[in-house]
Amino acid sequence: MNRIYITLFLLIINLNLFSQMRTGQNAADLSLPDLNGKKVSLSEFKGKVVLLDFWASWCGPCRHNNPRLVKLYNKFHDKGFEIYGVSLDEDTKSWKKAVRNDKLSWVQVIDDKGWDATSIATYGIDFIPSSFLIDRNGVIRTINAEGAELENSVMDLLKD
After folding, report:
1. CATH code at 61?
2. Which of 41, 83, 105, 151 has its CA 20 to 30 A from that of 35?
């Protein structure tokens, strides 16, 4: 019986490792509803440098990070930088209120199943905030970069 449990455990670990997106891989497409309920696909932004940002209104570190993302977006948006924000909120009203209060002017979509969201499984997210910086060709270049590292990576990718 213990062998069965060990085998299942190892299988789950291996499946989790293979499901996580990595640098150098093409970003998996997502198509989720925005603030108005219209489906917006990540692939619509091919040709731009995109930060795929997973967050939620109830996540303190996410909300603390939002002002930094606002600054980054304002600095580089007119040069071809976009943010595709994916909320894991299950409560749409809280999500919309957080977007408004934090002044998030970029594309915001919601995958309202929380930790059971398809996008979480697709990208292998274990915690939020989590982010993936994607180049103009749709390739993941950095994962969970912050501060100066993120800003420098955005600048470098915008030069290409």
Report:
1. 3.40.30.10
2. 151
